[in-house]
Write a structure and sequence with these properties.
Elements: E1 8-12, H1 16-27, E2 31-35, H2 39-58, H3 64-72, E3 74-77, H4 80-84, E4 89-92, H5 98-109, E5 117-120, H6 127-130, E6 140-144, E7 154-159, H7 165-177, E8 181-186, H8 193-209, H9 215-225, H10 232-239, H11 241-255, H12 264-271
Parallel strand pairs: 1-2, 1-4, 2-3, 4-5, 5-6, 7-8
Antiparallel strand pairs: 6-7
């Protein structure tokens, strides 16, 4: 195994995304500290990783020895400072709330070395605001992973006006060690992926809302006609209608573009708790 660019990685947030990020970093040979607020959260995150790896063993895609080696490189903790102290790379995967992310990085900057790279997994928030007031802006970058992290090839790297070339080069090299195909975009609302993906998803919802076609046929049009691996409505269910609604509202405000105005149906579904796969019902039943 190639020596990883970052030998010790702290992942803050042990939800679906954080657990996936921790897994791929450990698979690349890094020592990983997975942190969240409670023991229940971190152990659920570790359980997600264990279950995913076990499925690989059951399908013959990995060995029990490889599974155990990955798990041995992951430790869990509720102590954020302890997780970050001594890390070469810190990746946050906490909820998409600007104040939460900014406060987290201000806290983390106080306990990490000046050389530690600070990365946000935000899918759309302004990184200039996420890292506002954080010392060492040259080491700050966006690392936007996609769900499910162990399977999705894309990793969107987002540079701010202060991100150094050295940081970009090192994170790009690490991205490839993670088995990802990185793209580099500048800090702008929605970056490349969320801006395009949400716009397409919102238009698909408007089409469904007005009775143009069924959810299945709208999705089939994009899957078979344009080669998308998953249709926009099924993808919205997978990501979560509440998550996509929050991104849409943010982009509508930041870009002042009517294309990002959320459909009334989307708002009603979120109000009714029909958030997609995580609640069992969205545009599909799960």
């Amino acid at each position: 195994m190639t020596t990883p660019t970052y030998s010790t990685v702290a992942v803050l947030g042990a939800g679906t995304m954080g657990a996936g990020i921790a897994q791929v970093c450990a698979q690349a040979g890094s020592r990983v500290l997975l942190q969240d607020l409670t023991d229940d959260f971190v152990h659920k995150g570790l359980g997600r990783i264990r279950d995913f790896l076990q499925k690989g063993v059951d399908k013959g895609k990995t060995t029990a020895e490889q599974r155990d080696a990955v798990l041995a490189r992951i430790a869990v903790t509720t102590d954020r400072a302890a997780a970050c102290r001594g890390a070469d790379l810190v990746v946050e995967a906490v909820p998409e709330k600007l104040e939460l992310k900014n406060g987290l990085f201000r806290e983390v900057a106080a306990v990490t070395s000046p050389d530690c790279v600070l990365a946000s997994n935000t899918s759309s928030l302004s990184l200039a605001k996420v890292f506002s007031g954080v010392p060492g802006q040259e080491r700050c970058i966006g690392m936007h992973f996609f769900n499910p992290v162990p399977l999705m090839a894309l990793l969107e790297l987002v540079r701010t006006e202060h991100t150094s070339t050295a940081t970009i080069d090192a994170v790009t090299a690490y991205s490839k060690q993670l088995g990802k195909e990185p793209i580099l975009v500048k800090d702008s609302p929605g970056f490349a992926s969320s801006r395009l993906g949400v716009c397409l998803g919102l238009e698909a919802i408007r089409m469904f809302e007005s009775g143009v076609a069924s959810a299945e046929d709208i999705d089939k049009a994009m899957a078979l006609g344009y080669g998308h691996p998953m249709g926009p409505l099924k993808l919205t269910d997978l990501v979560g209608l509440d998550v996509r609604l929050a991104i849409a509202d943010y982009l509508r405000k930041e870009l002042d573009h009517p294309g990002f105005e959320a459909p009334a149906l989307m708002r009603q579904m979120v109000k009714d708790g029909k958030l997609g796969k995580k609640t069992g019902q969205g545009f599909y039943r799960w």
